[in-house]
Amino acid sequence: MDFLLNFNILFFIAAYLAGSIPFGLLLANTFAGVNIKEHGSKSIGATNVLRVVKETNPALAKKLSVATVILDALKGTIVLLIAIAMGASESTLWGIAVLAVLGHCYSIFLGLEGGKGVATGLGVFLVLIPIPTLIGAAVWIFCGKVLKVSSLSSLLGLTGVVIAALFMNNGLEVGSNAPMYIIAFIIYYKHIPNIVRLVKGEEKKVI
């Protein structure tokens, strides 16, 4: 029981459970009456919410998509801010960040299935490496406007965050870039099907 009362362990569990909340699924089901796990790419992320709900209610689709991005980002952000307020160490904060992204991508509430981790990754990066994240977010938005391909824009934005962090004194204070690389790897790994479709020229655009 002492193990479960450990300060760090409690935050790690909270981060994973918060990350596991499938907001996209809940919002689409509650407000549009559709199960996005059964339609489109079957992902619980904002892009699939937009694509699926847009078929029946375009105006609502945009609102739910934006809400999904915000809520998915806040999943890790809120736990991090509470941990910071309670004096958690830098290494603990990065552990929280990794577990929040893992929770989103491998949700305990969805049989270890989940989303791609982009919004949740953005949320935790914004707290821990804000300037590189803002640079990456600008890349993400610009590429999204120009390319109209959500997955490619997300990956380019993520790459922008990593590169910016490395140039700006590594962006980290834990003595290692490993946590950032782990989060980036998880997101890239979850995008492998998208990368394959991009190579084949089969990835759909978001119009």
Question: What's this model, at a glance?
Answer:
It is built from ten helices and no strands. By secondary structure, the chain is mostly helical.
What layout of secondary structure does this protein have?
Elements: H1 7-20, H2 23-32, H3 46-53, H4 58-85, H5 90-105, H6 118-128, H7 130-147, H8 150-167, H9 178-190, H10 192-200
Helix pairs in contact: 1-4, 1-5, 2-3, 2-4, 3-4, 4-5, 4-6, 5-6, 5-9, 6-7, 7-8, 8-9
The overall number of domains is 1
Q: Give the class from helix and strand content and strand pairing.
A: mainly alpha
Number of DSSP strands?
0
Based on CA inertia axes, which overall geometry fits?
Answer: globular
The Cα radius of gyration reads 17 Å
Poorly predicted segments = none
**Terminal-residue CA separation:** 52 Å
Q: How much helix is in the residues? A: over 70%
Number of helices, counting only DSSP H or I runs of 4 residues or more: 10
Mean pLDDT comes to: 84
Give helix and strand order, one letter per element, not per position: HHHHHHHHHH
Q: Quick one: biggest sheet?
A: none
Percent in strands: under 5%
